[in-house]
Amino acid sequence: MEQSFESSTNQTQNMDTLILQSRIREMSNHMKFVGLFAVIYGAIATITIIGALIGIPYLIAGLRLRESAASYKDYAMMNDPRLLITAFEKQSSFFFIMKVLIIIGLVIVAIYMLILLMFVLGFMGMNLFDQGLPV
């Protein structure tokens, strides 16, 4: 009876390991695709000087994501914890770069909206700084 319990536990662990390896390989393929898209987008954006400000970080982020995907896939095959650590570090680098790009994008949009608002109000003859107070 004790052998039966150990046998079923080992079978469950083996099944869990196979499912985990399958999920890691699937996720790795998705990461490679997204990383390739980021690299292509970054390369196209770097054609212009202003586009290079966004393109180069995108290109670097895409490369980091592809490196992470490769480390995850290697981890699934070899089960080496160092590969998992490398995968996490590269993926963390990708997310940090994307976070910075998102924040920069939001700031640029806010500035654009403010300038647009000033333009529209100026076109309508309103001045935000002139309250119409008598001198």
Terminus-to-terminus distance: 99 Å
Helicity, as a percent range: over 70%
SSE order, one letter for each helix or strand: HHH
Instruction: Give the overall shape, derived from the CA principal axes.
Output: elongated
Count of DSSP H/I helices: 3
Low-confidence stretches: none
Structural class: mainly alpha
Strand content: under 5%
Find the count of extended strands (DSSP E, 2+ residues).
0
Tell me what the structure shows.
Helix content is 87%, strand content 0%. The radius of gyration is 26 Å and the shape is elongated. The N and C termini lie far apart (99 Å). It has one domain. By secondary structure, the protein is mainly alpha-helical.
Features:
elongated; 0% strand; 135 residues
Topology record:
Layout: H1 2-45, H2 49-78, H3 81-123
Give the gist of this structure.
By secondary structure, this protein is an all-alpha fold. It contains three helices and no strands.
